[in-house]
Amino acid sequence: MTQFDFPTYSLPSAVPAWHGTVSARQWRETAQGVLDQGGRLIAMWGDDQRSRGQGFAVHAAFTMRAGLLWITLPVQSVFPGLGDLFPAAERMQRTVFDMLGVAEEGARDTRPWLRHAAWPADVFPLRKDFATLHPSPITHHGEADDYPFVRVEGEGVHEIPVGPVHAGIIEPGHFRFSVLGERVLRLEERLGYTHKGIEKRFEQMPLQEGVRLASRVSGDSTVAYAWAYSMAAEAAAEVTVPARAAWLRALCLERERVANHLGDLGFIGNDAGLAFGLAQFSRLKEDWLRTNMAAFGHRYLMDAIIPGGMVRDLDRVHWSRMALEIQTVEQDVARLKAIYEDHSGLQDRFINCGKVAPELAARMGLTGLAGRASGQSWDLRVQFAAAPYDELDVRMATHRNGDVAARVIVRFEEILESLRLLRTILDKLPDGPHCVALPAVPEGRRGAGWVEGWRGEVLIALETGAQGRIARCHPHDPSWQNWPVLEHAVIGNIVPDFPLINKSFNLSYSGHDL
């Protein structure tokens, strides 16, 4: 990593980090160097710096075995694309144009990604002069939202459009299948229906209050986002949280991981015809969420983490309740794991369904639990074990088959590992304060937060403005990397298997659409 010759950048964790401003040539050279060393693109986003006389900027964050690299490229109107190096960059680059009006040079795909004709084509919401209260009808000046999907032609080939409105209560996303009989030849996604203007809303919010918005980017990952945002704010403020606060954050993060895996394992079983699995896992998840509510005031632990630490401490009564619950859930999950593995009907649906080979996973940048199920041995709790994970010795669950069965196995193993970690956290929870106050933070400070959420790595990139407010905040969900891989995972499968494959990934619409 040091060959890139960027200044070291501090994070309030064990993650070595660098930040540097680069030229257009260095932008490409740096990305190529990251790829050559086995690194990945985490995120790409844009920034309007004209008020400081600096034009626009495009940022990219990369991960390598050595740490986190954040580079900034000043631009006027175009920037060199990175999609040929990192396929996940394609949609991010289209979004940079939709939101900022800065385009990839020589872009092959110029279709809007998040805009959906909800504002005029020559209006860019993340420019500082954007009128946030300007009325934005669904179609502007009669413009039709006619998205040009890629057509697959041939004898017997037809299309099946699914969504964006679905029969269940899931969020909206459009899936366009090209099929021959029931066999899927191609899937093309269109997302962005839950675009909410979150990045724009961050602008000018007080630094301390931004965590409330961050924790609502994706409701099933509120702990990961709140911790990442708080980490970024603490980096900008050059503050280290008390040890007890760090351990309580890890407690919440592992409880969030367990809750989501419990829910998903139930739904995956149900999608494969085992309603018993849904009933049992729903029961376990409901009891788990009630304990969250009792201990921290919210079923999904929203607003429990703030910059500086935790909102409330854990008392002895709820400590005892959690300790007993861990033992009970561990026993039930072990029994359910045996049932799932011995159920021939489930295994027939799971094995070789929605397969993502390790080579494809590496090329596409598949991350999180889905990546670990396809041989990608990456978990921030292991590679960069920030406090208190540096004392917990996390055992990473990985498999190589990359199918629904592998993703189910990873979930089971991660639940059992999280329960082990939770038991250790409760046993070793240090005494002391659970929060400290953040000092006033000068304008122009940068901070980054990087946390291994249950779905994958969550990144928050933050820059402070005047009077203790936010100048720019970019939240990045691992679903950005994983949604494109889902298009590959379904090829060659039959249409009725798509709900099962989709649920085995369980990607975020809200966290992607911002």
Tell me about this structure.
- Helix 8 (316-342) packs antiparallel against helix 13.
- It contains 16 helices and 14 strands.
- With 514 residues, the chain is of the alpha+beta class.
- It has helices spanning 24-36, 89-100, 198-202, 210-214, 222-237, 243-271, 275-296, 316-342, 344-350, 358-364, 368-372, 380-383, 404-428, 479-489, 498-505, 510-513; strands spanning 17-21, 40-48, 56-64, 67-75, 78-79, 103-104, 157-162, 174-180, 183-190, 305-306, 309-310, 446-452, 457-464, 470-476.
- The mean pLDDT is 93.
- The longest helix is centred in the middle third of the chain and has 29 residues, at 243-271.
- It folds into two domains: 2-116, 2-Layer Sandwich (Beta Polymerase, domain 2), CATH 3.30.460.80; 198-513, Cytochrome-c3 Hydrogenase, chain B, CATH 1.10.645.
- The strands form five sheets. It has a four-stranded mixed sheet with strand order 1-4-3-2. Strands 7-8-9 form a three-stranded antiparallel sheet.
Short description:
This protein is an alpha+beta fold.
CATH class of the largest domain: Mainly Alpha
Radius of gyration: 22 Å
The global form is globular
Average pLDDT over all residues: 93
Largest sheet: 4 strands, mixed
CATH architecture of the largest domain: Orthogonal Bundle
- Given helix and strand content, the structural type is alpha+beta
CATH topology of the largest domain: Cytochrome-c3 Hydrogenase, chain B
What is the number of strand segments? 14
User: Which H/E pattern describes the elements?
Assistant: EHEEEEHEEEEHHHHHEEHHHHHHEEEHHH
Span from first to last CA? 31 Å
What proportion of the residues is helical, as a percent range?
Answer: 25-40%
Number of domains: 2
Strand content: 15-25%
**Poorly predicted parts:** none
| Strand order of the biggest β-sheet | 1-4-3-2
